[in-house]
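Annex B.
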Amino acid sequence: MRRILVVDDSRLQRRILVGSLRKWGFRVEEAESAEAALALCATSPPDLVLSDWVMPGMSGPEFCRAFRELPRDGYGYFILLTSKNEKAEIARGLDAGADDFLTKPVNSGELRARIKAGMRILAMQRELSEKNRVISETLEELQSVYGRINQDLRQAREIQKSLVPELERSFGASRFSLLLKPCGHVGGDLVGLFSPGVNRVGFYGIDVSGHGVTSALMTARLAGYLSGTHFDQNVAMERLQYAFYGLKPPVEVARMLNARLLADVGTDEYFTMVYGTVNLYDGTLRLVQCGHPHPLLLRADGSAEFLGGGGMPIGLLPDLVCDSFELELKPGDRLLIYSDGITECPTADGDMLGRDGLLDLVRAADPAHSGREFLDDLYWRMRESMPKGRRIEDDVSALLLEYNGV
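Sigma-B regulation protein RsbU (Phosphoserine phosphatase): predicted structure tokens.
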């Protein structure tokens, strides 16, 4: 039941108002002065105050101002009773914090209507407060959940970084360098390499469909299939005599991965890949391209060539159609494998970087940079070509082979 406080120095006026309000079902308290009313409001705040304007001591507007300064949980509706009808006086009352006015002598019907209007406003205010409370509690809960998810994702990022433990590895005079930049906490790109013996290296660049946690889980599985530490689990290796291992042909590796992915029930993801093997002794390079961007061959004489015909991604159809080729590297040649996060990067002119743009970035790179410095410079130049303030929306990865024989 709503509580109403009637404040008036006239006992007769209080009796008339209190009688009407109680008849309408309200709980009513009364005070003969603003000072006494403030004491009541401080201990038990009413829902609505009905106060006279002119009283000995503190006036109605002064009481209203003091009432507004009292601490309370909800809103208190305030109606001033006055014989004043000048606009300046009404403005003064509103400035003091009054919500409504009633002109004396008070009409019973008008009083009841104004009280009901005030109660509707109080009901809406309390409903809004309750909704705000629920929203605040929900936000706190969501922030707590987000905090836990964010912590898990940071840990997942560290785990994913461990899939590429070495960002640079040298084999005599030749060197492999890796770049991996997820667009979120975790991503669906993967680059890596492994070597079962002297001068023989297998290497790859992979881009799993989609982004985020699902793609990251797939990269973790693929890292196991192409493990650089557990050769017995690596599908790209074959066991030879006396615990030695050899590298399987790239096309065979692509087909095995395709068969495994299609055999996994409930897996809808697919991935693009360039997988290659190189004999660092004679420069023989064998590559298979499965829907991945065309590798870029940078010859020592300054010429450049995009390799391959495309092929289809792994994990879509049982009969994999991929593009395989073989070539010979010369000392000073470089091979760049990269994901479409680079070539499909938006540029300031509203277009995508594309292969020509990538080639421009490569040629604009500092000639003194090599290895990881070259890849970092390439990534920085790609970011600089983007519209200002634009976030990278796709994972970026690259592998650079710098061949200089053994």
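Residues 237 and 325 are 19 Å apart (CA to CA). The longest strand covers residues 189-197. Further annotation is deferred to the next reporting cycle.
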